[in-house]
Amino acid sequence: MKEILILLIFFTTISVANEPIKPIPLHVDYNYQKAKLGYFLYMDPRLSSTGKISCATCHDLDKGGADPRKTSVSAGVNGKKGSSNAPTVFNSYFGFRQFWNGRAKDLQAQASGPMHNPVEMGMNNQKIQKYLRGNKFYTKEFDLIYHKKPMPKDAIDAIAEFEKALFTPNCKFDRYLRKQTKLSTKEAKGYKLFKTLGCITCHNGVNIGDNSFQKIGVIYPYKWEKNIPDRYALTHNPNDKNVFKVPTLRNIMLSAPYFHDGSAKNIKDALNQMAYHNLGLILTDSEIDELTAFFKTLTGKKPTILKRLSK
Ligand code: HEC
Ligand code: HEC
Question: Measured between alpha carbons, how far is 282 from 158 in angstroms, rounded to an integer?
Fold first, then answer.
């Protein structure tokens, strides 16, 4: 009995390392039927006014759930200009708010945004409803899941359920946190730097970010662009200029370019600018190399729902 107790204590203390970064849970409960419907909606360009833009146009599931273009400009309905870089939808379920300036409180509130945004999908509830109700597949699915005719708010609910399933567990770093593997010397040096330089003060928790608002340009100012919605656009407090949600660093190697304005073309560029603007530091080449090695350990497994859906 005593041995079992000791073993139990041993396992609970070693199961996850006591670090400021926490692993992504291995399982997240979601409703598969709903999420599957959400997937079809997510991929459906007919939910845009031009019939050409779907969520996947700007959040490519094969490109880390993000947009490889600087800003999602060219995708805008009728070529209208968007001004910010599309963040990843992977693991966004763990984010404390949605959008760069946190204007949506959760995925449900977020998903209705793009469909109605003229720069994104340019639709309205009436048009969405008309399209969904005129489609046999959707009518059947909505009836099965929601027991009624398709409603835009249920479509948003299904999309949010799909996004909930887009979590990427078991990256090398999470396995390290669970004490299932060791980091290489370079990766370990990179993680140590990440903590000693001070990156960890803003990038921590399950999503290594995505849990606070911070400024870009804490030490040396960063250019401010009026047309990009930062916290200031919501609060009108001058201290909130260039304040954004700290982005997740999960799968960071897959989601270039970086920053709200997509101005950092690659990871080296992002690291140099981050260190300079937010910590007042100039990184050496070997530091960049080590931080990058650590970042590579943050690429998780592709969401299992995508495999399930392709069967
Ligand atoms: C034309 C490109 C475009 C389309 C289409 C689009 N998005 Fe986005 N998405 C963006 C951009 C750009 C942002 C960042 C905007 C901001 O924060 O101000 C964003 C932000 C988000 C976020 C917030 C992520 C975070 O970490 O804050 C989620 C989630 C998201 N989009 C999901 C969707 C879904 C679901 C759809 C389809 C219903 C969709 N997007 C359609 C470009 C697009
Ligand atoms: C004071 C808080 C703070 C500190 C310290 C900080 N960051 Fe950031 N980081 C942010 C914010 C805020 C953004 C988003 C900036 C933007 O988009 O304009 C960001 C963005 C990034 C990005 C780009 C992510 C993306 O998807 O666009 C990377 C990479 C990054 N940080 C790495 C680091 C590293 C490495 C360090 C340490 C050298 C560091 N950060 C220190 C707050 C911080």
Answer: 45
